[in-house]
Amino acid sequence: MAMEIRGVWLTTTDSQVFRSQQRIAEAMDFLAETGFNVVFPVVWNKGTTLYPSQTMQQTFGVDIEPLFPSRDPLEEVVKEARRVGLKVIPWFEYGFASSYNLNGGILLQRKPEWAARDCNGNLLKKNNFEWLNSLHPQVQEFLLNLVLEVVNNYDVDGIQGDDRFPALPCEGGYDQGTVSRYQQQFGENPPENPKNRQWLQWRADILTDYLVRLYNEVKAVNPDLIVSMSPNIYDWGFQEYLQDTPAWLKRGLVDIIHPQIYRRDFSSYQAIADKLVNQQFTDVTLPRLAPGILIKLGTYSISPEYLVQAIAYNRQLGIQGEVFFFYEGLRENNNALAKVLRNGPYAKSACFPTLSDLSVATVSYKRTSSIWQRLQNFFRNL
């Protein structure tokens, strides 16, 4: 049986999946029948959890998303996914964001000292998201505690960060605590230009060090747990959100990684996939790559042709998997995209890789053939 990562994100936004255990059960049946083998259910969104959280209760007095006062959606997902043989990797979608157009929301109302600041001292806001200060030790501890609650209390296969975890908009880091740390090290204030290379790297290194701690603490609970990340694409993600993904890969801090290739046409997707495989991944790290593919956002839906092309191109490059954003895109137009997958690239079932599979070096057919091509050209030109 083939070994592939076939995943999908389950959201609370524009989705009804979490509204009842019956809906969750029906979704898991549907995904298993379509050929998927892993789900990434959101568990941290809009400053609330989708499970009863002692950390949230103690810190903010709210133990769960108010929509689910007497339920545990994460427990329900785990139960129903296990029933049909799906892996479960909870997704901490909000990461270090505190709110969306709410001036920090409940998190910063209760903990104003946790706010990220821009160079003018204002609450850090980017693309309408307000941010916690992910360089602050207490903020880092808080998110780590949420992660550890999940891996200690639920039968999950791992955890997932994303373009907000670990991350910070490059315009942040001008709070007094971070400025003092920078002054101690360099004897001067941080540059006013947020994209000064040294300033970018210094803050990114703090986030990478945090990921080291998170990775080690998750593995201390259970070495078989997967640490998955879905960052922005490098180097845009480094410049804008301090995500140094090459360092993460080099230091072995991610078991599987899903760069968000959220492009709306195949040629754009192809160009980024080429760049990832040829410039950012090696034969050792390639097995860990399963890109994020956008299948629905607002009124946009991917075409069946583009969907099939992207998967075929992944395999041609030696990429053994992908993760789709998001579940509801599979259900539109009478399950049209799910039918395309079930009758095409996902017709034969595939095993989710083990951690040892993910660390085995592989050489893809395309790479082998391109080397062969170069050798032939070389001998022709002698």
Task: Give the SSE map.
Elements: E1 2-3, E2 5-10, H1 21-34, E3 38-41, E4 44-45, E5 48-49, H2 54-60, H3 73-83, E6 87-88, E7 97-100, H4 105-110, E8 125-126, E9 129-131, H5 137-153, E10 158-162, H6 176-186, H7 197-221, E11 226-230, H8 236-241, H9 245-250, E12 256-257, E13 260-261, H10 266-280, E14 292-294, E15 296-297, E16 300-301, H11 304-316, E17 321-325, H12 328-343, E18 350-351, H13 355-358, H14 365-380
Parallel strand pairs: 1-18, 2-3, 2-17, 3-6, 10-11, 11-12, 13-14, 14-17
Antiparallel strand pairs: 4-5, 7-9, 8-9, 15-16
Short overview:
The chain is of the alpha/beta class and 382 residues long.
Strand order of the largest sheet: 6-3-2-17-14-13
Termini separation (Å)?
43 Å
Described by strand count, sense and barrel closure, the largest sheet is:
6 strands, parallel
CATH first level: Alpha Beta
CATH H-level name... which superfamily?
Answer: Glycosidases
Global mean pLDDT:
94
Low-confidence stretches: 361-382
Give the C-alpha Rg. 21 Å
- Tell me the total number of β-strands: 18
The number of domains is 1
Name the CATH architecture: Alpha-Beta Barrel
